[in-house]
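Record 1 of the preview.
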Amino acid sequence: MSKVLVTGGAGFIGSHVARLLIETGHSVTVLDNFESGHKNALAKEAKLVVGDINDPQKCPEALKGVDAVIHMAGLIVVPESVRDPLKYCNNNVIGTVNLLESMRKANVKKIIFSSSACVYGTPDKLPIKEDAAIHPDNPYGASKASIETFLQTYDAVFGFDAIILRYFNPYGPGEEHNPETHAIPNFVKATLVRKPIPLYWQGEQVRDFIYIEDLAQAHIDVLALSGHQIFNIGTEHGVKVKDVIERIFKIVGYKVPIKDLGARLGDIHANYASSEKLKKAVGWRAKIDLTEGLKRTIDYYRHFL
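->
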């Protein structure tokens, strides 16, 4: 089994990945600055290093004895990236290159990177395959695409194993961003407290919502891969956002009003994945359907609201 560093391991996705790594016998170190992560989300068995991927002391400390890095530290809010592109360049891109340099000096040359379907921008056709053109429509997506290019370079020049996982729309228990900008937690929370649901584009956008446990499993499944490889992680099913709301209403047994927020800069109309490449490589597939995932998510938030 491997010793794995999870950057951003106190965040929503990172904490799930860290716990699953431990459950499957791996040793885990978490590097997190707690800008958006939560200490109560940390896996108890994980070693914690409090620090930033830009920190020239904490980063090497976290890399001691490590076999591989799962890199999830980064800013993720699309509207914020539109307001402040430089912040996303400095934190996500420059921060990742600093991490890569620390890895190179520590002779740790395997990285699994948390990328995003945002790198595709507005797709030319659906479902989206990994060989689709890259043309991000917002600075967040541009930061992910830039990091992907650096990873390809570190594979070519320094012999890194760089596995890139392009997430579609993760959701599930434990999502506690502040402020929360993602659709499903906002929909669920508003419904449970019987307040109007905030909705952009009248809910006509089509998205591929992937349950957090399925997403986390993909990281464990690709740990043994080598070279430079890119995989989508999605359910391969697109659903209109307004239909997600109707499923939530059906689960809870009542409806609440909709607050129409109009358009939003940086959004695309529709995307959903082809994950056939990942299935062929490691046998991964999404197991939790949307209705079951929403039930589990609603049950989680009921305990806090």
